[in-house]
Amino acid sequence: xxxxRRTIRQLFVFGLVSTVAVSVMVFGYMKVPANFLGMGxxxxxxxxxxxxxxxxxxxVTYYGTEVGIVTEVVxxxxxxVARLSLDDxxxxxxxxxxxxxxxxxxxxxxxxxxxxxxxxxxxxxxDVIPRSRTTVGPDTTxxxxxxxxxxxxxxxxxxxxxxxxxxxxxxxxxxxxxxxVKGSTELALDARANLDPLITxxxxxxxxxxxxxxxxxxxxxxxxxxxxxxxxxxxxxGAVEGFLQNGPGAAQEGQALIEQLKPTLPILLSNLVSxxxxxxxxxxxxxxxxxxxxxxxxxxxxxxxANHDTQQAYRGTYLDFNLNLNLPAPCTxxxxxxxxxxxxxxxxxxxxxxxxxxxxxxQDSASNVRGARNYPCLTRPGKRAPTVxxxxxxxxxxxxNDGTSWKGDPNATLSGQGVPQLPTDAPSAAVQPAxxxxxxxxxxxxxxxxxxxxxxxxxxxxxxxxxxxxxxWESMLLPQTPN
Length: 483
Hints:
Layout: H1 5-29, H2 32-35, E1 41-48, E2 59-62, E3 65-75, E4 80-87, E5 96-102, E6 109-115, E7 128-129, E8 134-136, H3 140-153, H4 156-170, H5 174-193, H6 195-214, H7 216-235, H8 237-260, H9 265-281, H10 283-304, H11 388-392, E9 449-451, E10 457-459, H12 473-477
Parallel strand pairs: 1-7, 2-6, 5-8
Antiparallel strand pairs: 1-4, 2-3, 3-4, 5-6, 9-10
């Protein structure tokens, strides 16, 4: 058969076009070398709990890009095994999750590979993705059946209303919904980029949530108290507003007061610190005093409320005033002699005499039992001393004599002498006074009374001027003359 040149050219062009079309179909669309001959591919096995309607030739994606196909889906002893043929041009980390998903509601399943991190070595031929790292999406058939059952549950008369109201609810919100979807996508991408810290956070959140659950009662109580506080604030809104308005002014006034007191305030505070140290040291004594004061006040009230709420025609007290002057006699041991004692009508304030002034008789003496010599040493339990220095030292209290008589030189009382002091090297606590010499004292010629060197008041009848009148009530109050 003879073909002209034009026919030959047409046949050549047709053959060329057919060859190109077949090549594109075989190598581009069908991918015969890769899918049928395995060229440029490697196989990975995925263990699934169920098939999830996955089928052969289903796509395999990595980050949304197609990287292979499903070559086989077979049953195993405890589930389903799917074999994936992956393109070896794409390096996929071996620490990867495999999810069976659906592209549409019609059931176009595919396998999505999601790496946990990018540091693991890439997948190799024969690798297995275990079931612990695979998930299967919901069955589209059950999902469609549920949707159909839900639509059938809606009354037909109200279905149109539901659709119209849904359109009204979301109609025109396309940009906002698109923004929400875009933000959700970016959030998901950021979460995947920080997957390890996010997983750690989720793992560590359990103890925190457990502690919140354990302290639920405390949280409820705190919320109730907070509600009470806010209610009070709302009730006293005017007072709070006044406090906020007047508070800055009051603060400025306080600051101005502190500025005015700045020269003396530090001294006052330092003195209060010293006073605080003393109060801390004497805290037991202060506590005992605060305990006894109410009882003392109660005793006074009981004495002054005689016949209270009774039918008595008169009212009196439970107090009985019995004047026993100088019984017992005052303690003069350790003080100035009686002739040097200043009269109480003097109003000046001379210098204090040198030496320690306190009743210096034995601590077990019946005279002045609450005197300074019996002060308890709080830092030395069981010890009693008249001064802090003696309390803090190993020195023990030593009296001047065993009685209450004044000790000193009687003949020097008018010319003046200091407070008698016991020598620091006294051998013992019991110091025997020397026999006093003859003493001279002034007496009252009207009554014959005088104060002896021992500080006691005496009356001698033959010294008084004779009186014609009888005994007065003042003389009856005087004690009897000592023998």
